[in-house]
Design goal:
Length: 114
């Protein structure tokens, strides 16, 4: 990254992103800015889509006797997935549809809808 550009990072609301060590790191690097996705919006985070695929197709209903065995299953699945002609995830939602979905979500969780 060119040193004169600000870097904007979009992250979920996981507690690790708010840890004191992260805050210190960011404070020492003022060109870095965190932007948090709204709560209950994992569908905005494309890595969550990948985690869902791994969970459904490789992990769920599996039986693993060790972390090593689970790790190997995930690595084999990922290698097969990458070699099977898959393509990168393509963002297809429009800004308008995302904002409408967020508005519906906010209305639903604010208690105004029964």
């Amino acid at each position: 990254m060119p040193p004169d550009l600000d870097v904007h990072l979009v992250v979920d609301n996981h507690g690790t992103h708010r840890h004191i060590k992260v805050k210190r790191w960011l404070a020492a690097r003022p060109r870095y800015h965190l932007h948090f996705t709204p709560t209950y919006s994992s569908w905005l985070n494309q890595v969550e889509i990948w985690f869902n695929i791994i969970t459904r197709k490789a992990i769920r209903r599996g039986s693993f006797s060790s972390v090593t065995q689970l790790r190997e299953k995930i690595l084999r699945f990922t290698e097969h997935y990458n070699n099977s002609g898959t393509k990168p995830f393509m963002w297809t939602a429009t800004a308008e549809s995302i904002l409408q979905k967020i508005q519906r979500l906010c209305t639903a969780i604010s208690g105004t809808q029964h």
